[in-house]
Amino acid sequence: MKEIKKVVCIQCHSACRQAVEIEDGRLVGVGPDMDFPKGELFSTIVRSCPRAHAITDYFYHKDRLNYPLKRVGARGENKWVQISWQQAMDEIAGKMKVLIDRYGPETIGTTCGTGRTTDEFRTRFFNLLGSPNIVGQAEICYGEYLALMYAVFGWKLFPVVQKETKCTLMWGGGGPRYWNALWKNITKAHKEGMKLIVIDPRGIDATRHADLWLRVRPGTDCALALAMIRHIIKEGLYDKDFVEKWCHGFEELRERVEPFTLERAAEITWVPADKIRQAAELYATSKPAAMTHGLGIEHTVNSMETLHAVFALRAITGNLDVKGGDLFTTAYPDIIHEQEIELIDKLSPEQRKKQFGADRFKILTQEGFRMTQEAVPRVWGDLTLNRSSQFQAFAHAPTFYRAAITGKPYPLKAILTVASNPVVTYGNSKLVYEALKNLDLYVVVDFFMTPSAQLADYVLPGTTYLERPWIWAYAMIVGSERAMPAVVPGQYERWSDYKFWKGLGDRLGQEEYWPWEDLEEVYDYRLKPSGMTFKEFMARGGFAAGKGGYKRYEEKGFGTPTGKVELYSTVLEKMGYDPLPSFREPLESPVSSPDLAREYPLILTTGGRFLPYYNAEHRQIAQHRKRYPWPKMEIHPETAKSLGIEDGQWVWIESPRGRCRQTAEYDKNIHPGVVHAQHGWWFPEEPGEEPSLHGLWKSNINILTDDEPDHCNPINGGWPLRAFLCKVYPCKPEEVWEGETANVG
Predict the structure, then answer these.
(1) Could you tell me which residues come within 8 angstroms of residue 147 by beta carbon, excluding any fewer than 6 positions away?
(2) Which residue, 24, 351, 497, 592, is most buried by CB atoms nearer than 10 A?
(3) Secondary structure element (H or E) that encloses residue 31, with its range
(4) Measured between alpha carbons, how far is 327 from 331 in angstroms, rounded to an integer?
(5) DSSP calls for 75-103
(6) 3-state DSSP call for residue 620?
(7) Which DSSP letter does residue 19 get?
(8) Residues 720-731, buried b or exposed e (16+ Cβ, 10 A)?
């Protein structure tokens, strides 16, 4: 018997609507959900997605985690015994009680990934537990973007490219493989005459479509933005009416940008002055204009200041909440939103203050979250329940991991990891490894065994998006059916992360706060304001959105303390930070570290996305590895030849912190002084036990990156992943391990 289930794929952030085909209880494949209101938008994306094509290989992979495992050998020895869920949960909860009694609940922490799970329940569990120590990728991802957006605009903006859009500025990525639906709209509008500006050190896919490409030196984006602002102001191209009525601190911003002439910016950024001028003028005079970016800005040490400058560009050109520009998102009102589920008020003020890094990196902490939100309800009212605080109230990850090693400022003794592979995906992998090895209790819930999971005491099988229902109420609400069972007797027994957190909560005195037996009951509860059950909601299409509009600030102003866009941020000032954007030279660069640059002459940037993988996932899938077997480092051909490096050859990439190996890929579009290395690489086929840990140390670029707190962004604590110094040299034949070929180009 055949049936079709409607789901939302969360294997990346595009969240594509899919129609899943089931035949006789077995997953056959996925295609686009053409019944969805925007089904046509997703149709080509789903049909061309290699992860969608490989979904049966992924779901039925022989290495999927199926039953709970308990470590029986030394940590990292890859010796396990299968146990029941009952035993696993009883033992984990018992060990947590012992640690809490001795050190307090703050000694328990958790790491999370990027959107594979229902993280509002993780936050609920930890708020009830009394621990403020949740860490994730917020400091180098969307969390810092949101936090500063609330501080500057009092709500969150999203570029909505339409036929009216005259110009789109893409800064640091944001094209295909990031937000695919947005990219499709951009390419459609571009064909109809919209202008496209791309700012990126690399010749990414989007640059092939660009009318203007600014190849900025990694880590100098803030100087570029400040120069664009200066030129727009100097030439009178800013929106004078909007600035006068709705911007706070314009004169202070004018003074701040004055030193950043086109010529000075060209010297700093390596972008010719005339190109900076063209970009500023094209963006300022093409109305309405939209602006989107990837994560290139967030991965630099100057990240928050750069975002502040980029936000100021959006504001002074008057492209806010206008059709074809950057719109304030609107939450669906008839649902109980994530923030209420999180129970953030259950964490006491005393425990909030214990959050790792809260005294220094304030904006992304529990207290910082409250400060950025303080004025928001005046404008947005009850819709502020949709604020996704789990992305904006994290502990500082570098401080978190150091506490597991040093016990300072207090000991971190246990970590619960769900759908996350921190020893690969966080900066400074050597330190993360040492921290995980030093724990009294480490628990991992995931879909596959990973290098991080190999260091755990318990490894538990989680459910994918196909095995659980789902509701996501972020700016709009989308629902997802359970397509496949989570338990097949004799074959597998996987738990949703909700069931995991509920199971621990019930054992640790939180029973009254976990009244729902499963996620469908939770979603029935959350949908009560709409008058629908979850099944009824899905039967009606599984989608609802709030009522939008344009220029809504004209009625109540902006949700900031001044009621205006805060070019001069009173929120940052109150936290003790510079209220205006400022440029700082990268910590390692030919300018700031000329002596170091003599030994490490190349600028290293990392982290660009590439299909078919997503972050550190999907390396097990045979068809993906056949298509993309080895990691690649992009290097200019002339630079490579001067170093004796052939196209496709294995090379060492070395920084002052270590070295790893990737294959060289000639790229004539990258600056001769810059190389780009891929992130997220490990090799599931390699031995799981120490010292291999599935090839953790071979090609993992985070061996080279730095997370020293003194080197992090001073406002949010983000660790730099780009704009380091490195050197590159060929591997010797004996350094290429068995199974590789010398040239895989």
Answers:
(1) 363, 364, 368, 369, 372, 392, 716
(2) 497
(3) strand 26-32
(4) 12
(5) TTS--EEE--HHHHHHHHHHHHHHHHHHH
(6) coil
(7) E
(8) bbbbbbbbbebb
DSSP string, 346-364: GS-HHHHTTSTTTTTS-TT
The highest-level CATH class for domain 157-328 is alpha beta
Q: Does the CA dihedral 540-542-546-550 come out positive or negative?
A: negative
Residue with tokens 């016990």: 407
Q: Using CB atoms within 10 Å of the CB of residue 525, give its burial: 0 to 12 exposed, 13 to 18 middle, 19+ buried.
A: middle
Lowest-confidence segment of 32-36, 152-156, 311-315, 485-489 by average pLDDT: 32-36
Alpha helices by DSSP H, listed for 291-375, are 303-316, 338-342, 349-352, 366-373
Q: With a threshold of 0.85, does the pTM exceed it?
A: yes
**Who contacts 462 (Cβ-Cβ below 8 Å, separation ≥6)?**
65, 117, 418, 419, 445, 446, 447, 494, 495, 496, 497, 500
Mean pLDDT of 535-560: 92
Percent of the chain at pLDDT exceeding 70: 96
Closest CA to 153 of 388, 376, 378, 339: 376
Find the angle CA(384)-CA(389)-CA(391) to the nearest 5 degrees.
135
> Of the candidates 630, 741, 606, 605, which has an alpha carbon nearest to the alpha carbon of residue 695?
630
* CATH class of the domain at 2-59: mainly beta
Decide if 720 contacts 587 (C-beta within 8 A): yes
Query: pLDDT band for position 340 (50/70/90)?
Result: confident
Contact assessment for residue 745 and residue 633, using Cβ atoms and an 8 Å cutoff: no
The whole-number pLDDT of residue 452 equals 98
pLDDT at 745 over 50: no
* Residue 16 near residue 40, CB atoms below 8 Å: no
Architecture of domain 69-143+349-468+497-545: 3-Layer(aba) Sandwich (3.40)
Q: At what angle do helices 142-153 and 303-316 cross, to 10 degrees?
A: 50
CA distance 675 to 684: 26
Q: Where are the domains of the chain?
A: 2-59, 69-143+349-468+497-545, 157-328, 594-735
List residues bridging with 70 in a β-sheet.
81, 458
Q: How would CATH label the architecture of 594-735?
A: Beta Barrel (2.40)
**Side chain identity, residue 479:** G
3-state secondary structure of 510: coil
